[in-house]
Design brief:
- By secondary structure, the chain is α/β, with parallel strands linked by helices.
- It is built from twelve helices and 13 strands.
- Strand 5, helix 5 and strand 6 form a beta-alpha-beta unit.
- 42% of the residues are buried.
């Protein structure tokens, strides 16, 4: 069964595509510029041209596929209009394309924290809430994953945090809430298992790692992994808000204040037992994640 992966060219997406190919599933990857995706072609994937803002390209991409994996998301600080166009309208168009193609399984990446309480907090959470509603109402057997912060060596927020601790003698700590980081390859295996399972595991599953830390504790763990002694300080919330307000004057950062609101909202943690029981995947512990991320070579 051919699996269409939308968002496969991104940080998480490339790992999901690799995990699907490990399961020996035929994969079709949507890309704005297929000619630049030699890696996927080397993995035996079909790469087709398309974009989340082009409904006709989504319809063409979905034709002849048995499953769709939807990973596309813009950063929380992105322009709200772009979030609405790419994430909300794009998801509606993708679900319509999947239904037209007779797709039998749909797997969506949402985000931990998405829910009734957060949907009006920011355009990003609103978009994730709308995506979930669209997929749930589609009539297609579906799995929705809500991961916490996703860590990896090659993308996401972790490489920047590691570089900061490695090279800067003074480390600012942003945010006081707790988080539950999950390793990107674990997330990828969850998606592959959801697609490859004999019967659809319909439902919403929240994903995180085994360890819960504050941002200050995460900074200390990174220092320990690198063997560095560093001074750290907590960035005052007021300063964060002021910086976000200034940044929001620039088009690329128009949603900066919404990003700060999300950071301050509540702990980004969950009970991972239901997902572990359903999929049989034990997520990687944080210290091992950091060992992998900080290892040279």
């Amino acid at each position: 069964m051919t699996v269409l992966v939308v968002g496969g060219t991104g940080f998480v997406g490339s790992h999901v595509v690799h995990a699907l190919r490990t399961e020996e599933l035929p994969v079709r990857v949507l890309a704005r510029r297929p000619e630049r995706q030699e890696r996927f072609q080397a993995w035996g994937c079909e790469v087709v041209q398309g974009d989340m803002t082009d409904a006709e390209s989504l319809r063409r991409a979905a034709e002849g596929t048995a499953a769709v994996v939807h990973l596309v998301a813009l950063p929380p600080f992105a322009n709200p209009a772009a979030i609405q166009r790419v994430m909300e309208q794009g998801t509606r168009d993708l679900v319509a394309a999947a239904k037209s193609a007779g797709v039998g399984r749909f797997v969506l990446m949402s985000a931990l924290g998405t829910g009734e309480r957060s949907k009006d907090l920011s355009p990003y959470y609103r978009a994730k809430w709308e995506e979930e509603a669209e997929v749930s109402a589609s009539g297609i057997p579906h799995t929705i994953f809500r991961p916490s912060f996703i860590f990896g060596r090659d993308g996401g927020m972790l490489p920047g945090l590691v570089s900061l601790v490695r090279w800067s003698p003074l480390n600012p700590v942003v945010g006081t809430k707790r988080l539950q980081p999950i390793w990107v390859e674990d997330v990828a295996v969850y998606f592959a298992k959801a697609v490859a399972a004999e019967r659809p595991l319909t439902g919403t599953y929240e994903l995180g790692g085994p360890d819960v830390v504050t941002f200050a504790e995460l900074n200390e763990r990174i220092r320990r992994a690198l063997g560095k002694r560093r001074l750290s300080f907590q960035v005052p919330t007021g300063l964060l808000r002021a910086g976000a307000a200034a940044g929001s004057l620039l088009p690329p950062l128009r949603g900066a204040r919404d990003g700060v609101a999300m950071l301050e909202f509540e702990d980004n943690v969950t009970d991972i037992a239901p997902a572990v029981a359903a999929f049989g995947i034990e997520p990687t512990r944080l210290d091992e994640q950091l060992r992998r991320a900080t290892a040279r070579g």
